[in-house]
Amino acid sequence: MNKPYSQACENNKHAILTKLIEHFSDLTNVIEIGTGTAQHATFFAEHLPQLNWQTTDLAINHQGINAWLNEANLTNLKAPITLDLNATWPTFEYTFDGLFTANTLHIIAWPLVLKFFSGIADTIVKNGVVCLYGPFNYNGKYTSASNAEFDLWLKERDPLSGIRDIEAIVELATNADLTLQTDYAMPANNRLLVFRK
Description:
The chain is of the alpha/beta class. It has 6 helices and 9 strands. The strands form 2 sheets. Strands 3-2-1-4-5-9-8 form a 7-stranded mixed beta sheet, sandwiched between helices. The protein has a two-stranded parallel sheet with strand order 6-7. The model has no long low-confidence stretch (mean pLDDT 97).
């Protein structure tokens, strides 16, 4: 099959990696929520060989993920596990001290954002690191005109989706025993939020 491809992943993967090198340096097992095309997974696993990188996504996306994984042929990159935020998170073979997700919280409906943080609370061990990449609003305001346009497009597609207010995300994270460590400005008006449990 032709591998799925995202230009946005290609554009932002180097910038994200520079931060993951810093914050994931002392970790062992990282779970990625919403692996998507697997471009991030293969790139990060290659450049962070000390990590076991567990991919997850809806079953419908596994074929495309496996196409990337089979080509990369990395021993530290794990085949996708089905994870549906509408359902109970699966039981994993090992514990995770890291979590990464990119461009998911604004795509999924708000009730699933709540379930996302509930899942983190039960999955990530104490002192674990959680990295969330994507656009966020601050004080209820967009950070750019392009983000405002993007948010309108998202809500036309699904009224329960949309760019999230960082204050709401930090509150959910706090309730999941996560503390915001760093908020990085990233390319294309995105952010990388780094939390520690």
